[in-house]
Give the backbone structure.
Amino acid sequence: MKYRLGVFRGDGIGPEIVAATLQVLKAAQERDARLRFEWVPLPMGWEAIRATGSALPESAVEALGKCDAWILGPHDSVSYPPALREKLNPSGELRRRFDLYANIRPARAYPGLPAVCPQMDLVIARENTEGFYADRNMAWGIGEFMPTPDVALAVGKITRQASERIARTAFSLARQRRRKLAIVHKANVLRKTFGLFLEVCRGVGAEFPEVEVEDYHIDAMTAHLVRRGADFDVIVAENMFGDILSDLTGELSGSLGMAPSINASATQAMAQASHGSAPDIAGKGIANPVGMILSAAMLLAWLGGERKDPAAGEAGQAVDRAVSAVLEKGPRTRDLGGAASTEEFTTAVVQQLSGN
Ligand code: ATP
């Protein structure tokens, strides 16, 4: 199959790690004639601000309508001009515009790399469109406001529809993995909102009798993850809890800086490394591209599943295996204690993938 892939290079180390990712995807394409990519380069971040005054030009958003999926480099939105900082940042805007409701964040330790929990291998399915991040909850206005200068209020939102679709994503993932799902909530305190989330997740579980279900209060879950992180397989959580837990699991499994993710709707997906634009090392050729490359591998796996395309699914697995092999035997980038440049590491992954 042929896929149209949007490519946003982004800010800071973005252009370097996105270039590395494209090299790996091109190598994946070369090893399998069934797989074809058409690249659609799109402006975002400072590149776009300089050209159009907007960090995410409307023309780029329109172009995504015709793409199967896209790769989003990191953005350095805290450095944008004040008027742009007031707006939702480019990744938030893309999640909202394309209803990318499922944020899938794996946390896996690698042999030979130090980790607090060396056996960790789990995936967090984070609901991306509502929950307790009040800024994305309203059709009109924002869900955070101040009746007086000394009182701040925020609105949380849980709906049956959004809970149901993220639960279905999570159970489907669990079914393909070790068949265990943990629902994270705080229904003992927020009885209506998290009560609904828990009830709906449990209800969806009835469609997946082969998956073992547990549920945990968010506070207890942080302790369980630190104490016995290797026991967990798939975790489903509301937006804010999922965001916080995935930083914890990213760090427990080795390095938050290497953690990949995708954000998916029913029809499209966006690959996005969980680290930021790392302006302190931008342009030096030393960034670790693993988070971005593995996010692209997840994108291939997602295309494989959604478009029922074995070639894309196999390519995703092959990229994943090639990265794991290079991480284990080296070369490694400086953040992992090695001396390799972004280019040297990427060349090693490409060679591994090409079987050289
Ligand atoms: P954001 O708020 O956008 O997440 P941040 O400033 O909190 O950004 P990062 O940009 O991720 O965080 O940078 C945090 C630290 O991690 C920096 O020292 C940066 O150099 C390092 N870092 C982040 N990503 C990478 C990477 N891919 N390779 C090497 N070092 C990285």
